[in-house]
Design a protein that fits this description.
Chains A, B: Belongs to the tRNA(Ile)-lysidine synthase family. Chains A, B: This is tRNA(Ile)-lysidine synthase. Chains A, B: Its EC number is 6.3.4.19. The structure is a homodimer of 332-residue chains. Helices cover 54% and strands 15% of the residues of chain A. Chain A has 332 residues and is an alpha/beta fold. Chain A folds into 2 domains: 3-231, 3-Layer(aba) Sandwich (Rossmann fold), CATH 3.40.50; 253-330, Uridine Diphospho-n-acetylenolpyruvylglucosamine Reductase, domain 3, CATH 3.30.465. Chain A has a 6-stranded mixed beta sheet, sandwiched between helices. The first copy, chain A, has a 5-stranded antiparallel beta sheet with strand order 7-8-11-10-9. In chain A, strand 2 (55-62), helix 3 and strand 3 (86-91) form a beta-alpha-beta unit. In chain A, helix 4 packs across helix 5 (105-124), helix 6 crosses helix 9 (204-219) and helix 6 (135-148) crosses helix 10. The longest helix of chain A has 30 residues, at 223-252. Chain A is elongated. The termini of chain A are far apart. Chains A and B meet through helix 6, helix 9, helix 10 and helix 12 of A and helix 6, helix 9, helix 10 and helix 12 of B.
Chain lengths: 332, 332
């Protein structure tokens, strides 16, 4: 694929989601690596293609995991200065935070990075945060969910637009493969840094990338495409089911000050797939930290199917069933 | 797990699907290998557990792929005679059929085997055909679909009951792992044959079994369980979406002698996931051989979204859109 076709493809993704109108202010999360350096330059190309100007800012986090990360920040700062763009940087001691919080370095790194990006975008007046996840990342993310165990939710992969923080996070490259990004960088003679931990298969993500995907490709060379397409089609399917769940919730759940009430008979008419999701929605609305296990779900489905009186608790939530009525409330 | 717990688990699967009532006549597809030998003995155990008698018949196909297959048929015949059960066998020259029909040996073998099983079940008066697919097979089957490229349909895996032929095909072992079956065979001191082609990774299925699953297990040792559970939850979700598709079809499609008609405006109100499936259903009802590609689907979604006049063909089917009406008919 030539550079023009690549720019058109990224532009197509952005247009589909009505993203980056004229004079948008976009904060680009950059590591200095190939993906985010390609994103930086592609967004400049998109602005030229659309005959507009964007305010682009570049933000890099030093995670203190590799000794060379300090130098990479300086290298990127020079690149960004030469381009005349705004530059933001900060340092987190991710290894220490990881130990203190008993979370993996990947998880902690992601949390502090996105939180800081959101703060900078806020204080410096950016409309969007752009990140460089591409089609290969998408397939790896879906596989990671599949391996850990998931339902439909995990198979959708990452969204082009997500709203986990105040400022929307945008992924313009989800329809572009890593190979295409590398070809773009080579074609434009652009330089980038290489993260030495990318080949370390102690990291789960690298094991998926370097061991599992190549095995899958030996059966279907286009497996990355196939998995990314699955993500898109599952997103469409999930939209239908989520919508039905919201409708069922509104129709079936009576909300009082201290409790929620449902009719067993009415619930029984709903398909099992909707019942499971309705229960998750109901529990989350009382305690946002609750994720129902399959065992919890079976217990709740069982309550609906039998007519017996029953009482049990799931974490902070009490569920009692008597005659046709199920009551759900917080114990505290 | 001990033998009693295993029998209870298989019994649970059968009860959930109201299978094998008293005096059922069950034709067991057997290869002489561990899975189907375990199935044979487990169905005898289930009969005893339920204090009933089944008429069990054992059917084996010699696929003429391995030199030792003739001996395995004789070995199995001796086993079955000793148990006093009915025995059926036949030979197909699968390698030659595979070349003639330009299909893989796996595909041809499966086709001729199921067709013959169905014929025997018919002529000999069996109510069910039982096959030995277990939980590991289920996970492999779901992965095979994922790798080749699939939507929700391929992620459901194999069903406990399927109706592809006249006589229902039953899979009583879908909730049991291979390891549990081997433990059962060892515990009961039962013998079986080993298929030498099982380790040949030129076969796609063996590559999934011996290369891919172990890699996935290095990340999550319970990955087989996780994938099999995904299959169950996807089946529930798909039931909801299929049901909505049937309803939309009945509401939106007008069927005349020679054509089907739809309103663009009405179709546009349906979610994309339903539109795609409605088109597949509509095309299959005209020509059962048609499987719409993603490109076909996009073309059809596009017709719905624009108001323009358009005409195009997909294989034997012509689609014309003018004003609000889309007409679909067979060219012949």
């Amino acid at each position: 694929m030539n550079v023009k076709a690549l720019i058109r493809r990224v532009n197509h993704t952005l247009k589909l989601h009505k993203l980056f109108p004229e004079h948008s202010r976009i904060l680009i999360a950059c590591s200095g690596g190939p993906d985010s350096m390609a994103l930086l330059h592609l967004l400049q190309d998109i602005a030229a293609h659309r005959h507009t100007k964007y305010k682009l800012g570049i933000a890099i986090v030093d995670h203190s995991i590799r000794p060379e990360s300090k130098d990479e920040v300086l290298w990127l700062q020079n690149q960004v200065d030469a381009l005349g763009l705004s530059f933001y940087t900060t340092t987190f001691d991710v290894p220490t935070l990881s130990k203190d919080l008993k979370l993996s370095e990947e998880t902690v790194g992601r949390q502090v990075r996105y939180q800081w990006l959101n703060e900078i975008a806020h204080s410096e007046g950016y409309d969007y945060i752009a990140v460089a996840h591409h089609k290969d990342d998408q397939a790896e993310s879906i596989l990671a969910h599949l391996i850990r165990g998931t339902g439909l939710n995990g198979l959708t992969g990452m969204a082009v637009v997500s709203h986990d923080y105040d400022i929307p996070v945008i992924r313009p490259l989800l329809d572009v493969t890593k190979e295409e990004l590398l070809a773009y960088l080579a074609d434009r003679k652009l330089t980038y840094c290489i993260d030495s931990t990318n080949d370390d298969i102690r990291y789960q993500r690298n094991r998926i990338r370097h061991r599992i995907i190549p095995e899958l490709e030996s059966i279907n060379p286009n497996v990355v495409d196939a998995i990314a397409r699955l993500g898109c089609s599952v997103s469409e399917d999930l939209a239908v089911i989520s919508n039905l769940t919201v409708q069922a919730f509104e129709r079936l759940v009576t909300i009082d000050k201290n409790e929620m009430r449902l009719s067993r008979k009415a619930l029984r008419k709903e398909p099992v797939a909707i019942q499971r999701r309705l229960w998750q929605r109901l529990m989350s609305s009382i305690d946002s930290d609750i994720t129902l296990t399959t065992a919890h779900q079976e217990q709740l489905l069982d309550i609906v199917n039998t007519g017996e009186g029953k009482t049990f608790t799931i974490k902070s939530i009490k569920v009692t069933a008597q005659c046709d009525t199920i009551k759900v409330y917080c114990k505290h």
